[in-house]
Amino acid sequence: MSSVKLFLQDPVIVRDFLRTRTPYETAKTALFFYFVITQSLKFCRHVQARGITDSLRDSWTWTYKQVLLLALKVPSVQKDVQQQLNKARLDIEGKLVPQGVDVSRHLVLPDEGKSMEWIIAEMEKMDGELGTRADWKHGKLSGAVYHGGDDLSRIIVAAFERYTVSNPLHPDVFPAIRKMEAEIVSMCLRMYNNPDGAGTMTSGGTESIVMAIKTYRDWAREVKGITEPEMIVPATAHAAFDKGAAYMKVKVHLIPVDPVTRKANIKRVRRAINRNTILLVGSAVNFPDGNQDDIVVLGELAAKHNIGLHVDCCLGSFIVPFLEKAGLSDGEDGGAKYKLSPFDFRVRGVTSISCDTHKYGFAPKGSSVIMYRDAALRRHQYYITPYWTGGVYASPSLSGSRPGALIAGTWAAMQYMGSDGYLKSCREIVSCARTIANTITNSIPELYVLGSPPASVVAFGSKSPEVNVHEVGDAMSKKGWHLNALTGPAAVHIACTRLTLPVVDTFIADLKDSVQQAKLAPSGKGTMVALYGLGQSSPVGPDMVSEVATMFLDTLYKA
Q1: Residues 283, 250: Cα–Cα separation, whole Å
Q2: pLDDT above 90 for 430
Q3: DSSP code for 308
Q4: Which residue of 162, 187, 191, 253 is 20 to 30 Å from 535, comparing CA positions?
Q5: Where are the beta strands (DSSP E) in 430-495?
Q6: What distance in Å separates the CA atoms of residue 396 and residue 394, rounded to the nearest whole number?
Q7: How far apart are CA 82 and CA 90, in angstroms?
Q8: For residue 340, how many C-alpha atoms fall within 13 Å in the half-sphere facing its CB?
Q9: Which of 224, 322, 213, 232 is nearest to 272 (CA)?
Q10: So what's the pLDDT on residue 70?
Q11: In terms of domain of life, where is this protein from (predicted)?
């Protein structure tokens, strides 16, 4: 090593060495050194972000996984695995696809158009064929349906009817839709304390997040010359960040969270920042356990390094901006402390926020808003080409044509609810969630609440070796509840909505019964136990789960 160092440091030796080589050999040598240096830098940045211990663990897991994947190619093993996957496929199809000779299937266009009466009757028939697996009006759901009431539904339908054919791609034809979209963005910006900011509507939280990643990628390339972008994301951030990074070819450094507070490990975030970092991510609140990252500290880091900080408020949406006014942002309830730290554009370093209007804003599904600190940053979200033979093409987000009816429905919902309606909704929903959290903490000794969730989501794990929390989730499923299973750690969560309010006592009673059932008579056969047990069984477990998930997606398109 010392002789190589001496060789590189002595200009005379280097000059004489290069003189004895042909241009082709010199180019090859230069290319070789360029490859070694760039790959070494990538390796160093990776180890710096992950840490030596985690890097070694990742390498061991990867090696072990490759060995197991080779073992799975043994014909006898492969046959057994395929049999299990085929069984899983049949189970999925049995749950999703209606079976029987009496099932009507519409696989080709009818020769003649059908009447409205026939269409409505056929829809009712399909509902009957598929059965009512989850009557959402009964409220036994985690999130999923964010219902603002029957009166609001009628208002949204009226907006749909009025603007059915509208398309914001043509603002000259549909000026009212353009105006409503601009006003929706303006209302959200003011709600998040940035009246002079900028934003656009999107089709949902995932698109808002993907657009943010695209924006920072293009911004960093133009302003800082970064061609190999990286982003730093807490482990509890939404999977849409991984999805967006995959689409936009941005490397992700996944940061662990504190096991008690459930906040991103700031020390690890700080260590992961390098010259290629374009974006930090924080949640207020996160989807898995409903906790909040330390946005203030993340903002300080973002400002110091001149990089973006995106705050994901897709789930917090129309809850977290109203917590302070509702008197619920800082205090003690039932012996537990709940505190919402600053999270919006008032925090130095926050450069973008995503907010789902179709969650606690009670707007129709398929609507969200992505907001930026200023219009200059938003410009990097746009796609514009002046070279198309069809004319200049410009769009603010992924879609070209968009349903103006959704924009009208969103605008109508926000006008109907108003600040007072959202404040009342926030107070009721958060009080409901805290009732559940406090009951778990004070009355169900086998369980514990993850972190100190300040808003509408409560996640609970097991602190008893006798209770598998996924068994609890499966037992709740048998009682008609549709909850979300989590991993890292194993847990179950409920996102409370207005539909949860009248059934919160039922939830608590069912949860207590389910804990005892999981403790005394675990079945070991429920969906949560089987699926998430498989995912954690070995390094290839996630691959098997991915295969099952692929089957699920395939089944969605089986007519």
Answers
A1: 19
A2: yes
A3: E
A4: 253
A5: 447-449, 457-462, 484-486, 491-495
A6: 7
A7: 12
A8: 24
A9: 232
A10: 83
A11: Eukaryota
**Which among 373, 227, 400 has a CA at the least distance from the CA of 309?**
373
Strand 352-355 versus strand 368-372 pairing type: antiparallel
The answer to whether the Cα torsion of 224, 343, 242, 489 is positive or negative is positive
Tell me if residue 370 falls in helix, strand or coil.
strand
- The DSSP letter of residue 264 is B
Give 3-state DSSP helix, strand, coil % of the chain, rounded to 5: 50, 15, 35
pLDDT class for 118, splitting at 50, 70, 90? very high
> Percent of the chain beyond pLDDT 70?
93
Give the count of beta carbons closer than 10 Å to the beta carbon of residue 301: 18
Distances (CA, A) of 10 to 15, 29, 31, 33, 450: 9, 17, 20, 17, 60
pLDDT in tens, 93-104: 988 888 888 888
Q: Helices 404-443 & 504-520, crossing angle to 10 degrees?
A: 60
Instruction: Return the bridge partners of 331, or none.
Output: 338
| Run of H or E residues at 533 | helix 527-535
Give 61's contacts (C-beta < 8 A, 6+ positions apart).
539
What is d(CA 144, CA 557) in angstroms, rounded to the nearest whole number?
Answer: 21
